[in-house]
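In this section we walk through a basic example: taking a raw amino acid sequence and producing a predicted 3D structure, encoded as C-alpha cells. The instruction is simple. Fold the sequence below.
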Amino acid sequence: MKTNNLLSLIIVAALSSCASSSKSHLSKGLKAQAAPLSTFLDHPQLMKPDRERAPFALVWVNPSLPAKRAGYDSIYVAPVDTSHLRKARTNISNTAGLEKHRPVAEMANLLRGSFIDAFRQSPAPRLKYSPTLSPKGVTLHLALVELNATDTAGNAIKTAIPYGSAISPLMNGNIAIEGKVRDNATGELLFEFADNERDPMTLVSLRDFKPWDHAKSAIKDWAKQFEELSRTPPNHKVKDSLFFTLKPL
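The resulting C-alpha cell sequence is shown next.
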C-alpha cells in the first residue's frame, strides 16, 4: 500500500511536470543524449557527432585511418571493460535499478558476443573476425559505462492508469558504451566512439516488462551498426536505431 501511494503521488507530480515542460522536452529531441565520457577514452575533448556517417553519439577518427584502412583484414574483440561502470540509478518504483540486481557479467558477455557475431554472420564482412591478435588486424576494445534497468513495476502501473504514457520517460532504462579500435601491430589508436540508448517509445512492448530486454536489443543494434561502418565507404551513412518501435517483442 505504501509503495502504491508513493507511486500515485509521483505519477501526479510527473504528469504536471510533463505538461509544463513538454516544449522543453521536444526541443531536446527524443533520442537519448550522450552519456558523460569516462577515462576509458583517450580523446574525450576531440569527440563529436558525425551523423552523416556514424550512428553513434560521439566519434573520433585518427586522420591516418583512411590511408591505412585497406591494409587491415581482421578484427579481434577484447573482453569488455566494466571498471568504468557507473552506479545504478534507482527507478521510480525503487525496485528495478538496485546495484545488486544488475547482470553486469551477463551483459558484458552479450556485448562482446554480439559484436563477434556481427562479423561472423555478416554476408560480406570486410574484416574477418579473428580469435587471436593478427598482425594485419585491429582490436576493438569496449567498455560498459552505464546500465540501468527498465522499470517493469512502474510500467505495469502505467498501463493501468489514464494517460499513463505521459510518465513513460520515468520508467526508461538505459545502456551506454564506449569503444576504441587499435592497430594490432603498432598499438596506434584509430577510432573511438560512444553511444547511449534508452528504452524506445512504444505503444505496447513485452520488453517494457522485462528489465534488461531493451538493453539487449540496443547491444545487438550497436553490433550490426559497427560492422556496417567497418565495411562501407566514407560517404555511406549508417542509420541510427529509431527512438520508437511498433514491435511488441
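Looking at the output, two observations stand out. The chain is about 30% helix and 20% strand. Confidence is low (pLDDT under 50) at residues 6-29, 153-168. In the next section we compare this with other chains.
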